Fold this protein.
Amino acid sequence: MSTPPVIPGVVLKTKFVTSDKKAFQDYVDYVDRDDAKKEQEANEKLFTLYQDYMDSPDKTSSLFTQQSNQLNDEEKKQLKKLFEKAQKNNSIMWQDVI
């Protein structure tokens, strides 16, 4: 009896760079640029587009959650609403802190 092949669900690739390397400083400069630090509203809009970005067949074969290995269109809509609600709640919490 043979065992079924293992198919990874997520592949993560990283590269470690120490702080004395030029690539490290280039990254710090990149994330510290003005465009990256624009108003929170712009970042919230981008957050809601994340699911659409990840739903691309170039990125993955399907969207998944703990409950489902492959979301249908209705489940994707529900998940997007949850993301938007979470982002709105996060914004409200930060407004209370500031």
